[in-house]
Amino acid sequence: MTTLFSKILIANRGEIACRVIRTARRLGIKTVAVYSDADRNALHVEMADEAVHIGAAPSAQSYLLIDRIVDACKKTGAQAVHPGYGFLSEKREFQEALAAAGIAFIGPDAHAIQAMGDKIESKKLAKAAGVSTVPGYLGVIADDSEAVTIARDIGYPVMIKASAGGGGKGMRVAWNDEEAREGFRSAQNEARSSFADDRVFVEKYIQQPRHIEIQVLADGQGTALYLGERECSIQRRHQKVIEEAPSPFLDAATRKAMGEQAVALARAVDYKSAGTVEFIVDAERNFYFLEMNTRLQVEHPVTELVTGLDLVELMIRVAAGEKLTLKQEDIHLHGWAIESRVYAEDPFRNFLPSTGRLTHYRPPSEDPHVRVDTGVYEGGEISMYYDPMIAKLCSWGSTRDAAIARMREALDQYYIRGVSHNIPFLASLMANQRFVEGRLTTNFIAEEYPTGFHASDLPPEEPAVLIAVAAVIHRCLNDRDIQISGKMPGNKVRVRDDWVVVMDGTQHPVHVRPTDGSPQRIGYTVDFEGRHHVVWSDWTLGQPLFRGTVNGAHVCVQVDRVGVGYRLSHSGSQALVKVLTPNAARLDALMPVKAPPDMSKFLLSPMPGLLVSVAVTEGQEVKAGEVLAVVEAMKMENILRAAQDGTVSKVHATPGSSLAVDQKILEFA
């Protein structure tokens, strides 16, 4: 058997760098991390055996600099580089530079990267090979006027995409000339910023499609396999949110046909390593080649969970010259796996990115049914310079329903504070009946959440569960308080049984009494509106997660102290709760509610980011829908428009300024 590398460098950051390090450790391979100024204290730096600083925080000044990566390999003696995904993972020049330095690239050869990594060239090759492709214009587009002309010829709606794009960046859907012109400019700017390649192409946008991809694996020595499919249709702004394997839509015949076509495409370019062939699939299971990603995919864990294979290990072995011992008949799919991408973003504010320090970070415990791929830790920081992903949360079950149930439990247990996160939205998706039934398209989120995500979109919860848990938590605190030493002799205090739980402004009288149990468990019966709710738990004071049962049903409720009350989180929803004596509850009902300040005359920055441009001046009249400013965050341009007609009275921020969330940009008369 071929000798594996003794040391590899990971030319990436975040969760994927940590993911590669874990497999390398298991194989006995030493690892080298690279890091920018912003990642000096990052988890992947701590996990690696060695670490090399490669530049400033912006990726164009660090992670995208080929010469810095090659120099780091030479300094540390790394024999090979794993590129992860994004950054330089699909750059032919990177593979060539490594080869020239005698360093192995854990991925495909340069000619395959060039042929298939470029979306325009890969479509031309696929079409020449007889692969069904989506109608479109594959030439390089000179300017926005030409983009409009091409879009008209193809027929709206069209998809405008960056040739070197990925991760939803440099991608826009246009339904008319104005959107095509604006979409071309934004896609080109994002492509230039993210990939240093501003080429853009246009293709027909197929409505009601599914996004299904095939994982391929080849050794460059004659063996090429497909490892089943992944359903990636749950997307927001072309960014995948939920992935699963297998697809609830494909039958065996379609799976085989797609797999064989993906392998044929890989063989056409002498592909070596892991890669993914993406398809659009219509309602009749007709499929069309979309693109090939010549790298490891973000969502590869779901394939690993249903096949039992370690794709990173197989990539390393192939790069070291080993021949695959697997045959196609050895590949079997067992059970069902789902991946939820946990992002630092605020789903209640149109998913705006959130940056800052993770004051508390406690992911769910990993076991055969739950996997957490993360690159952050408690006390670490979510930077404005990179993708806002916190983690990839994966669940496995023997059936799809079981995998969904496991995911809902794991989301309840994921405790994140300090930044906003999208767990409420993920919980809503897992409870959505259309999702549970598997009726998916890439328009799913737009159709199910047409006006954005709101608290009303969360799964309906039996309020008695949170009321009972709140009553028990407060009773435990009072039971603890009466045991404090140093009291005056003869001054015996008894904890009352009657309380009023005030939740979201509504008062709920409850009666709480202890239930005999073991020393390791607390038990209480909570009487509420004529019903008994028996609560059991091993919760102790101060723990952020209240795990237990309410009337025999398992629950996990997140608990935060807020002033004299609590913030309880369960199934994605939150409730502010106070537990008061009956007399205090009567007085509480008389307290006035403080109205928030009126900020309607200001344009506020909806996120922390860089103010790219201001399109208006003081004294200028604007119409509803007119562009006011552009803010860049997490490598994405966000266009801010006027909500109504008005006149600009003052400009508070200038282009190039770093903005905090809710910072004033403009003021209207």
TrEMBL record:
InterPro entries: Acetyl_CoA_COase_biotin_COase (IPR004549), ATP-grasp (IPR011761), BC-like_N (IPR005481), Biotin_BS (IPR001882), Biotin_carboxylase_complex (IPR050856), Biotin_carboxylation_dom (IPR011764), Biotin_COase_C (IPR005482), Biotin_lipoyl (IPR000089). Its EC number is 6.4.1.3. NCBIfam families: accC, PRK08591.1. It comes from the Bacteria. It catalyses: propanoyl-CoA + hydrogencarbonate + ATP = (S)-methylmalonyl-CoA + ADP + phosphate + H(+). SMART domains: Biotin_carb_C. Its cofactor is biotin. Residues 123-320 form the ATP-grasp domain. SUPFAM superfamilies: Glutathione synthetase ATP-binding domain-like, PreATP-grasp domain, Rudiment single hybrid motif, Single hybrid motif. Keywords: ATP-binding, Biotin, Ligase, Lipid degradation, Lipid metabolism, Magnesium, Manganese, Metal-binding, Nucleotide-binding, Plasmid, Transit peptide. GO terms for biological process: lipid catabolic process. PROSITE patterns: ATP_GRASP, BC, BIOTIN, BIOTINYL_LIPOYL, CPSASE_1, CPSASE_2. Residues 590-669 form the Lipoyl-binding domain. This is Biotin carboxylase. Residues 4-450 form the Biotin carboxylation domain. Pathway: Metabolic intermediate metabolism; propanoyl-CoA degradation; succinyl-CoA from propanoyl-CoA: step 1/3. One of its GO terms (molecular function) is propionyl-CoA carboxylase activity.
